Amino acid sequence: MKKNMNKPFRDGKEEWIQFDSTPYCSSSAFDAASPILREITSALHSMAIPVEQLHAEAGKGQFELVLGHTICAKAADSLVYTRETIRSIARKHDLLATFIPKYTLDDLGSGCHVHLSLWQNGQNVFMASDETSKYGISTLGEEFMAGVLHHLPSILPFVAPLPISYDRLQPNTWSGAYLFWGNENREAPLRASSPPGTPGGFASNFEFKSFDGSANPYLGLTAIIAAGIDGLRRHLSLPEPVDTDLNPRNLQRLPKSLSESLESLHKAEFLDEFFGDKLLIAIKAIRKAEIDHYLENKEAYKQLIHRY
């Protein structure tokens, strides 16, 4: 997702104003932004990065761009190129495109949702092969997804790496604030997905919603895959999905802050194999420094729109 903003000055202080205030999927938002969006799409296609969907989102000045699926390492590359392309073209139009997870508390945040499927010999092996599967997911897919769900609190520092990331991960904001999964449940941090063309009753992939635009895509995707591999090794099982209205009393709250998720990361020994001691020590130290910095500088988060 992105937000386009223009910048006036008030009383000598920098102040950012959202590009527009139109609602979700508004056609008028496209009327105003179409020259920019057309240029972005054309530039991405010229780099062989397919754009599958592009629409106005629910936040002010916010648009969602969906990239075509590809292998994990290439997907991370494409995400980096896409962000740089969007920001560059926005600057050309005297705008700022930012992927910051939360800029103002009264507006919706911006996420970077990840859809994952498992492939072998050209076949999607996440999806069940017949109707005997309880959730339309293969045993392999269930174990992988169960590992990601089980380790979600401990991998949050990789996918939601800033203190303000947790301002986005709030109840009733479609971002996933509780530890559960669902079938097409928009409040779930993990949800089984059956896009058009998928046989009825089957899930072709699952969506991971905690990822945001401040995350390093290489580290974030590695953490997700590591959690899934641990699920495969331990043959973890998915709990029952939650597809009804949420009852928070029956659900575990995900970490409410970077400090809490960092505590979970300290207990996650399974990550040592995938990251190594030195890199993990560095990541933990940087997260701790981020926490300390924003505790001491309450307004520092506003400058993050220039970084992310």
From TrEMBL:
A Pfam family reported for this protein in Swiss-Prot or TrEMBL: Gln-synt_C
GO molecular function: glutamine synthetase activity
InterPro entries hit by this protein: Gln_synth/guanido_kin_cat_dom, Gln_synth_cat_dom
SUPFAM superfamilies: Glutamine synthetase/guanido kinase
Keyword annotations: Ligase
Domain GS catalytic: 1-308
Superkingdom per UniProt: Eukaryota
PANTHER family: GAMMA-GLUTAMYLPUTRESCINE SYNTHETASE, TYPE-1 GLUTAMINE SYNTHETASE 1
Protein family: Belongs to the glutamine synthetase family.
The protein, known as: GS catalytic domain-containing protein
Species annotation: Pisum sativum
